[in-house]
Amino acid sequence: MYLTTTETADGATVVDSMRGYMADVWQTLSNLFNFTYVGRPTRDGTWGRKQPDGSFNGMFGMMLDGEVQMLVADFYVTSDRATVSEFTVSITHDK
User: Fold this and answer.
1) Sign, CA torsion 92/36/47/56
2) H helix runs in the chain, sequence order
3) Which of 9, 20, 78, 84 is 20 to 30 Å from 93 at the Cα level?
């Protein structure tokens, strides 16, 4: 998913648009199940990796810290991530 963002006068980052097949899938689900959402960029530009202290950075850190409720991306399922989150089946695959 590709985000275009703008920084506001107070330093906050606002998502202007989301593009890509994951954005298309998410928008389709939103239309089908009648929910709204707000896109948020990751706070440190990473997907999320377990840190030495047991916390997570990146998108997974944001989810575990309660900043976001759900992650929408085509990231890899790792054993560390699987201990803190549930995953759907992949909608893509490599040959």
Assistant:
1) negative
2) 21-33, 58-64, 79-82
3) 84
The answer to whether 62 and 40 are in contact (CB under 8 A) is yes
Q: To which residue do tokens 């997907």 refer?
A: 47
Structure-block tokens of residue 21: 């097949």
Structure tokens at 24: 């298309």
Strands 2-7 and 13-19: antiparallel
Whether residue 48 contacts residue 58, with contact meaning beta carbons closer than 8 Å, is answered with yes
Q: Is the dihedral angle over the CA atoms 4, 92, 69, 37 positive or is it negative?
A: positive
pLDDT tens readout for residues 4-59: 878 888 887 777 788 888 888 888 999 999 998 888 888 898 999 999 999 999 99
Position 62, amino acid: M
